[in-house]
Amino acid sequence: MKIRFTPIAGAISLAAGLFVSSGALAADTIKIAVAGPFTGALTQYGTMVKEGVDTAVEQINAAGGVLGKQIEAVTIDDGCEPKQGPVVANRVVNDEIHYVVGHVCSGATIAATDIYNNEGVVMVTPSATSPAVTDDKNYDMIFRTIGRDDQQGPAAAKFIIEKIKPKAVAILHDKQSYGQGIASSVKSELEKGGVKVVLFEGINAGDSDYSAVITKLKSSDADFVYYGGYHPEMGLLLRQGAEQGLKVKFMGPEGVGNPDINAIAGAAVEGLLVTLPADFTQDPSNAAIVKAFTDKKRNPSGAFQLTAYSATVAITEGIKGVGADDPIKVAEWLHANKVSTPIGEISWNKQGDLNDFKFDIFNWHKDGSKTVYQ
């Protein structure tokens, strides 16, 4: 790892439009970049993360800040696009921001991590679940406050095997790092469990007509469908499947657990199964934090609000722990210590993954609510 002394060359002339919002930045603040999609089809995931960071920052600042300084959240848009990951990372480095909560989507995260690690920036993603973010990288500066797809995938597969007991399963994915990765994990675990996978196929994210793949599903004899990807495509699959008489149960990862899916799928969303982080809002010890969200008309029960809150807490606790705004030492401190957060007491292994994280299975409802599967 290279300790940062100078900004990365060649990134000085980045478009000013990358900044979506920031307050008046002052030298006496400690800045944390919030990197994620704030434009495009996946904007709401960025909003979830921003709400978590903003709530944490407000509470930390109200309690006096860190080292006598206020925390400043600087929101930067990557559109959930891998090609924008390095652009945003370069902007962070050039603006001498030492800490990042994000990125949100796995593809953009993977594209940015080398820069952060090489330039000594602490990055904590609250949402990127692809194992490729950290596997075989020997990173010192990269962390998560969410589990990995090779934890989420087996949890989904175990549920399918033990609770659904399908005769045959079709698995679809969006051909991207996150979606294809978790779909592959589910496929592997199902096959190990003796479940027949009759279709494993990629679809094109952003398409508006999935009639061809729905026809394949209808002729595949599958009585259960797992989809790896995000909510826009899942919503269309559900709606168009219902319109074409496809009568199977669907399941997806946390990327489909977005209230916007209801507007796309309509009534066909009822009963969708989703793997999500456990609902930490139900923990009585989080009552004050939940109130802090709701007082600002923010929803604390989405997929990433409390993991983002926890990422912010981890960074600030690391700064307090070393007694300095020194990202190299903060990363060392995080690797060596546990942090108390709304998602529990967390700690990290050598490569920056959580030592423990729980995914639950939820039923998604047409009114936008969700309930733990019983």
From TrEMBL:
Pfam families the record matches: Peripla_BP_6
InterPro entries hit by this protein: Leu-bd, Leu_Ile_Val-bd, Peripla_BP_I
Residues in the signal sequence: 1-26
Family: Belongs to the leucine-binding protein family.
Protein name: Branched-chain amino acid ABC transporter substrate-binding protein
Gene3D superfamilies, per the entry: 3.40.50.2300
NCBIfam families: PRK15404.1
Keyword Cell membrane recorded: no
Keywords annotated in UniProt: Amino-acid transport, Signal, Transport
GO BP annotation list: amino acid transport
Record domain Leucine-binding protein: where: 29-364
